[in-house]
Structures are given as C-alpha cells and as structure tokens.
Amino acid sequence: MLSKGGGIWLFLAIAVVVGAAALLTPRTPQPLSYHHFADQRRWFGVPNFGDVASNTLFLVTGLWGLAFLAGKSGQQQFLEPRERWPYFLVFLGLVLTAFGSAYYHLAPDNERLVWDRLPMTIVFMPLVAALIVERVSLRRGLWLLPVLSAIGICSVIQWHLTEQHGRGDLRFYLAVQVYAVLALFAALLLPARYTRGSDLLLVAGFYVLAKICETADHQIFSVGHIVSGHTLKHLSAGAAGFWIVRMIQKRQPFAGQ
User: Fold this and answer.
1) Which residue in 6, 171, 217, 252 could disulfide with 230, CB within 3.0 to 4.6 Å?
2) Distance (Å, whole) CA 3 – CA 11
3) Domain extent at residue 138
C-alpha cells in the first residue's frame, strides 16, 4: 500500500506513461466503418432503436446520482461536503451522455460523434479527480478537477479538428480513456477514507466489458439477432455508473478519518 503523499506521483507517472505512449503511437484517424453498427432496426419510428434507447440507463443513473448528492443523505455520506463536487460532474456527464449518444445514434457520423464523446470525458476525468480527492488530497483533487475535465474535453476537440482537416487523430482521446481506467486500478494501491473500495474493481470491470462488447458489436448481434454488442456496451457502461452511485450510498468512513 502506497502512502497518500506518494499517491499524486503515482497518478502523474501514469499520465506521463500514457501520454508518452500516445505520442509514440502512429496517428489514428476515426474509421468511417465505425458508424456502421450491427443493429440498425427501426422500432416505434426510431432508427437504430437499440443503440438509441439503451442510453436511457445513462439518464436514469445520472439523475439518480444527482438527486442523491443534492439530498440530505447524500451530504451525510461525505466527510467533507466539497468531496461531492467531482461526483456532481460525473453524474451530470452521464445525463449529458444519454442525450449526446442518443443524438449520435439517430444518424451516426463524425459530426454527431463529437456530441457523444464530449460528455463521456465529463464522466471519465472528474471520476479521476474524485479518486484523488478521496485517496490523496482534497485540495489537490479539487484543484485538478477543472484541469482534468479540460484535458478530457480538449482531447475530443483536438480529434474533431484533425478530422476536419483530413488528418484524423484519435490518440489523445483514447489516451484519456486508458488513463481513467488505469487510475481506477491505481487508486486501489492507496489508503482509502471509505469502505467499499473494492467496488472500483467492478466499475472498471463493467467499463472493460463495455469496450469488449463495443468491439464485438457485429459478432454478438449475429447470435440470434436479438441484441447488438454496441447496445450491450451502453448497458454495461451504464451499469458502471449505477455501481458508482451504489458505492457512495452504501460506504462508510473508516474509523479515525
């Protein structure tokens, strides 16, 4: 178990390694084939219904999390009220993801994909800030909250601008996702202020499962043509958000905190 004092250096080291790996990786444009999802069925007049409707879980989870944080019980679950701030952004990001992703999946293309990806970074990076707040330092975590959020948003803007100039470059947006997942695992190496720290493994597991389902979109849909991998990706990623809400609802401060 690392000390809290060394924790910030762990998060920084991971950022340096991931950033360096992104720089050393060849430029990666967005394949246009990405927009050709397996399940394009129209139900109730809605095109690509499965991939659109499955965003409902993001909306429900995000609103649930925001309502919990705003209520009296939510305030009592944190040793310091300001610890809630990163989670407010996480849950707001989930709500925005529901709308952005639904908008994209109605007519998938690169222009709409921007509005799918922007809110997702408002989930990823504030979650990293929340981990720093709870595992390293409240002051440093809150200072890094706008910095990390800006980095995530800028990674999407950078990708979009490079696509518009015919030199699409996904590397830094992908690096943001990789960094967020590695930060979840890194947090487990640091002393916790609250119980249920192992729930972070489930959150990371749901996210990894979501990426697997995304990659196997067509293969999963080919089995019975019931549900596509991308629809399952939304449900699995939504489950990760659900588990974050559940974690902060049920955890308790360790003695002596």
Assistant:
1) 217
2) 13
3) 4-19+46-190
Half-sphere exposure in the Cβ direction for 163 (13 Å, CA): 20
Q: At 194, phi and psi to the nearest 5?
A: -130, 160
Taking each continuous run of H as one helix and of E as one strand, the counts in the chain are 11, 0
Please report which helix (H) or strand (E) contains residue 215, including its range. helix 199-215
**What pLDDT digit, counting tens, does each position of 4-41 carry?**
667 899 999 999 999 999 999 999 999 999 999 999 99
Q: Tell me how far apart the alpha carbons of residues 78 and 29 are, in angstroms, rounded to a whole number.
A: 42
- 53-87 pLDDT, tens per residue? 999 999 999 999 999 999 988 889 999 999 999 99
SS (H, E, C) 195-210: CCCCHHHHHHHHHHHH
The SS3 of residue 194 is strand
- Decide if 125 contacts 93 (C-beta within 8 A): no
DSSP state letters, 123-163:
HHHHHHHHHHHHHT-HHHHHHHHHHHHHHHHHHHHHHHHHH
Instruction: Look at residue 198 and tell me if it is in a domain.
Output: no
In a domain, 253, yes or no: no
- Calpha distance 141→160 (Å, rounded): 28
Would 239 be classed as within a structural domain?
Answer: no
Q: Is residue 251 part of a domain?
A: no
CA distance 257 to 253: 7
| pTM (predicted TM-score) | 0.95
Count of positions (residues) in the chain: 257
